[in-house]
Amino acid sequence: MKKYTDYFSRKIAQGNSFFDRDEQRRALIVELSSSGSVWLSGERRVGKTSVAVQVCRELSLNAEQYGFTTLAWSKCDISSCATMEAAKRKILQAVADVASDIAGRDQKAVEGIRQFFARFDPEFAIGGKDIAKLTLKLRTSHSMDNPLRDALTALDALARDKGSQAVLIIDEFQTLSEIKADEGEKIEWEIRSALQDSSRVAMVFAGSKKRMMSDAFVNKNRALYGQCRRVKIGNLPESDCTRQLKKVATECGFEYDEGALERISEISKGHPRDFSHLSLQTFELAVFQAKKPKHITEHTVNAAWEAYIRDMVFDEVNALLKEKLNNNKRAEVATLQAIAHTRVAKIRSSWYSMK
Ligand SMILES: Nc1ncnc2c1ncn2[C@@H]1O[C@H](COP(=O)(O)OP(=O)(O)O)[C@@H](O)[C@H]1O
Ligand SMILES: [Mg+2]
After folding, report:
1. Which burial class, exposed, middle or buried, applies to 148 when counting CB atoms under 10 A from its CB (0-12, 13-18, 19+)?
2. Topology at the third CATH level for domain 21-232
3. How does pLDDT run across 142-163, given as a tens digit for each residue?
4. Which of 7, 79, 212, 348 has the fewest Cβ atoms surrounding its Cβ within 10 A?
5. Which CATH number is 1-11+236-355 given?
6. Atom of ligand 1 at shortest distance to CA of 46?
7. Which protein residue's CA is at the shortest distance from atom 15 of ligand 1?
């Protein structure tokens, strides 16, 4: 018998817990397998990261079907980066991960990326699968004008050489504008100039800050304008949610009153986070209810919703606090940097002024 916890997830949805999104998956597959890049738009917790990861997994499992020897991908979430340097480092590390993956056991390729990444002060270690794993300590020296562009261009050359395809997911992409708008735009120009000429590197930009994200892609003066196909992620159709619930109930040995499972789809309105959390809570309550265990009634669903709402308010407040904290950290760093760059005109001390 299968477990209901395999089908609903509080983390990103993958494998059994992922369903639907045929249209968006098709768009992503078409773009990424032809080195096109994508801008994934949608509210918080609507399923952007899940669909991006799901598609990359599918593509890498069936790389040959798309004409590649391998497809390597990596996801980096830059939302916790307080400085531009940290964000750059995180993206470059993702580039290095994909490069290591593509190089695999090919000593010549490994040597090639070792040479390229030598400027970033890398460390090589042999990973579990006998694959060279490159970790960057990364000190971008000031002599490097466009480290990100150069790294992406090098990745493209490596991928072409090996007949592979590289995909990079940059999650919470608007963080670049949040840290510092003008420096963020400089990075976007670097990415643009690499993407324009690349034939084996594709990128997915995801982010939930609507205004900042659309400005980065729709504003004609911005670097990534016209460079990416937009794929919108919205709620899941309620009827598909109900179908999924019925499938899970049957496979996991649950019974249900007529209309009870429909109630889950109806209350959650097909919002992926609400749907998956409410489903988890409902199935859990049903397992432990005294009267008729593993039988879902409307009452079970309503009780689960009440419990979920209580948890969710807590989680959301926590998430928002964390976001605010990151913003504060950024402001703090900016102030310290400003102080560090201020030249002292006159030295004064209380002792001096008393004289
Ligand atoms: N296609 C899907 N099928 C089932 N559950 C999903 C799907 N997409 C997202 N979810 C669920 O929704 C929640 C939010 O997904 P996530 O990918 O983190 O959203 P985002 O990246 O937009 O914030 C997670 O709990 C995840 O399990
Ligand atoms: Mg996400």
Report:
1. buried
2. Rossmann fold (3.40.50)
3. 557 888 999 999 999 999 999 9
4. 348
5. 1.10.8.60
6. 22
7. 47
